[in-house]
Amino acid sequence: MIAALGYSRQGMASAWRFEAAFRQECALALVLVPFAFWLDLGLSETLWLVASLVMVLVVELLNSAIEAVVDRIGPEHHELAGRAKDTASAAVLLTLLLAIFVWAMVLGTHFF
User: Fold this and answer.
1) pTM for this entry
2) Which of 2, 13, 49, 105 has its CB 3.0 to 4.6 Å from that of 36, i.e. a possible disulfide?
3) Domains in the chain, ordered, with CATH?
4) Active-site pick, 25, 60, 67, 79
5) How many angstroms from the chain centroid is the CA of residue 43?
């Protein structure tokens, strides 16, 4: 279990070092997570807000892993490699849209 935690830490550090999108999404989460708690909503709504942001980070990590594996296989263009990268990128987009939707619904319900 200790080794697994070490590998996870290495993965997070690698994503932070090499993935600009991950750094940007972390910065956004560092602002929005405290804001979610500051809003003083109910527990379930706060959890929805935070969970949607965590999901963005998780999917971004998976996207980065897929891109790294595809890039490791070879630099030449291959249709399947492009499809894998594009599909992983689409997963990030859908998760970002989900987070926006969740935040809009929760905030809209309480403040508008």
Assistant:
1) 0.93
2) 49
3) 2-111 (1.10.287.3610)
4) 60
5) 22
